[in-house]
Amino acid sequence: MAVCAAIVGKDNSPKFFCCINPDEELTFQYKVLSSLDIIEEKLNPASKSASEMRELYLGQLYSLETCKIYGYVTNTKIKFIIVVDSTNMALRDNEIRSMFRKIHSEYADMVSNPFYIPGEPITSKSFDSSIKNIITGTV
Amino acid sequence: MADDILFDLLHSEIINYTLRNVDDNEKDKNSDKKDEDLSNLEYIGFSTGYRIIERLTREMPRFKDELDTLKFICTDFWSAIYKKQIDNLRTNHQGVYVLQDNAFRFLNRLSNGKQYLEVAPRYVAFTCGIIRGSLANLNVHCLVTADIQSLPSCKFHIQVQRV
């Protein structure tokens, strides 16, 4: 179970943020936004790793004392970021990957919604609750 | 099979609807236009393409470069929408791509002679928009124009705009 998930747009502006514990939201926002630099680096076509790695899932971006941060970038350059508590050893790479895939298909449904204008922050309540379900592992 | 025809019918109704709306607006201004205003139709295509591409590229590996993206448009993307692939892709490697479809779905049911050649642009405007919208969401900003010389084949010219 992850503690936080975020969606960042192609221009690096936050689109959606969801946190299990509302008190920690600010510190997680800070961590998520600082990990964008690492995503940028991983996607840079000049670096060797980017040309070899063609998967959308980027793996672990970095780990801190308290948490680990994972990234995923779609073909349309939308970034998904998941924060996992460091004490949580049960969560494997494959589970993170499948979490991201579920978020991606949720997002694709969101973009197909005619009431959502692409590029705007996501305010849909049902989207929020389904993302919460995905990161807490209740689906 | 019934699903396929639904899309064709919806598409031709969208064309009728947008053109009728344009006609009504034009009457007020009393202007005599030569070219039909297809920009609304193109815009409907643009937003469709912009949204659908998120779903279509979900299972795809990351694209290496622009040509890779265009190849995706010619194969997977075209099969998803038109149930066939583009017949010919040409490029000058400097940002101009020409996609040729020898039996374009929306023109396939028009008779082959010259009779309907002048209304044919209506049937490709939506597709130009779809291509432009999808590529815009994949960070390839471009101009898309269509060129119909003999029905039912159609060429789409994509000109990538470099900043």
From TrEMBL, chain A:
Gene source species: Ceutorhynchus assimilis
Single biological process term from Gene Ontology: endoplasmic reticulum to Golgi vesicle-mediated transport
UniProt keywords, alphabetically: ER-Golgi transport, Transport
UniProt name for this protein: Trafficking protein particle complex subunit 2-like protein
PANTHER family the UniProt entry points to: TRAFFICKING PROTEIN PARTICLE COMPLEX SUBUNIT 2
Cellular-component GO terms for this entry: perinuclear region of cytoplasm
Pfam families referenced in this protein's UniProt entry, alphabetically: Sedlin_N (PF04628)
UniProt entry tagged with the keyword Glycoprotein: no
From TrEMBL, chain B:
Name of protein: Trafficking protein particle complex subunit 6B
Main location, first listed in the record: endoplasmic reticulum
Function: Component of a transport protein particle (TRAPP) complex that may function in specific stages of inter-organelle traffic. Specifically involved in the early development of neural circuitry, likely by controlling the frequency and amplitude of intracellular calcium transients implicated in the regulation of neuron differentiation and survival.
Gene Ontology CC terms, in alphabetical order: cis-Golgi network; endoplasmic reticulum; trans-Golgi network; TRAPP complex
Alphabetically ordered keywords of this record: Endoplasmic reticulum, Golgi apparatus, Neurogenesis
One Gene Ontology term from the biological process aspect of the record: endoplasmic reticulum to Golgi vesicle-mediated transport
Domain of life: Eukaryota
InterPro entries named in the record: NO_sig/Golgi_transp_ligand-bd, TRAPP_component, TRAPPC6/Trs33
PANTHER family: GEO08327P1, TRAFFICKING PROTEIN PARTICLE COMPLEX SUBUNIT 6B
